[in-house]
Design a protein that fits this description.
- Belongs to the aspartate/glutamate racemases family.
- Strand 1, helix 1 and strand 2 form a beta-alpha-beta unit.
- With 229 residues, this protein is α/β, with parallel strands linked by helices.
- The chain is 52% helix and 13% strand.
- The chain has ten helices and seven strands.
- The N and C termini lie close together (8 Å).
- It has a four-stranded parallel beta sheet, sandwiched between helices.
- It has two domains: 112 residues, 3-Layer(aba) Sandwich (Rossmann fold), CATH 3.40.50; 111 residues, Rossmann fold, CATH 3.40.50.1860.
């Protein structure tokens, strides 16, 4: 089993899901008392969020690259970044290490293509939904990406930062997400990418009329497959 390196804390709510999923998936694959061989650097999300808000992605990339280097120094044989949004700085992370970096958008796109779908709705932070770094990566796999209206993007973003990152899950927000996913389906989405690692805390397959693609689970599955290959 290869050692999995995790860059987490953005937020720790979803990083805890990564840890749980990695261990459950290893146990499913190997049985008995097996669990994942992993090492985690958990960053202070307040610092990262402030850099997001100010647009200082260069400094954010430096911090995450340092985290990746520390993981490799601790014996990590592959690195997983436990957040969709911060894949905006995937390049400096990859440049900082010699071990494989498992890009979350690639993992997600492969799952969508394996399902035979091309046109997908994308939910995530405003950065993920509105900027090119994530949508273009999906498009490079031949996917057509739809995003909610500006007003609905604001709702999705607010719920992530003001509720889910703080461990709050409400029926009101679940209803709003269901409505927004319904709007995407009405616009032609064949599936919905839950493109923020916290969204799976709120909605799942039963909340949409089309297949959903849970990026946290898909990323964890890819990490375990790589670790056990």
């Amino acid at each position: 089993m290869k050692r999995i390196g995790l860059i987490g804390g953005m937020s720790w709510e979803s990083s805890a899901e990564y840890y749980r999923l990695l261990n459950e998936l290893v146990r499913e694959r190997l049985g008995g008392l097996h669990s994942a061989d992993c090492v985690l650097v958990s960053l202070d999300f307040a610092e990262i969020e402030a850099l997001q808000a100010s647009g200082d992605w260069e400094r954010a990339g430096e911090i995450l690259a340092d985290a990746a280097r520390s993981l490799e120094a601790a014996g990590a044989e592959l690195v997983v970044l436990c957040t969709n949004t911060m894949h905006k700085v995937a390049a400096p992370i990859e440049a900082a290490i010699t071990v494989p970096f498992l890009h979350l958008a690639d993992t997600t796109a492969e799952a969508v293509r394996d399902a035979g779908l091309v046109r997908v709705g994308l939910l995530g932070t405003a950065f993920t939904m509105e900027q090119d770094f994530y949508r273009d990566r999906l498009a490079s796999h031949g996917l057509e990406v739809l995003v909610p209206s500006p007003a609905d993007r604001a709702i999705v973003h607010r719920v992530i930062y003001d509720e889910l990152c703080l461990g709050m899950v409400t029926e009101e927000s679940r209803s709003e997400y269901r409505r927004i996913m319904g709007e995407l389906v009405a616009s032609g989405a064949e599936g919905i990418i839950l493109g923020c690692t916290e969204i799976e805390l709120l909605v799942g397959p039963s909340d949409a009329s089309v297949p959903t693609f849970p990026t946290t689970r898909l990323h964890a599955e890819a990490a375990v497959a790589a670790a056990l290959s």
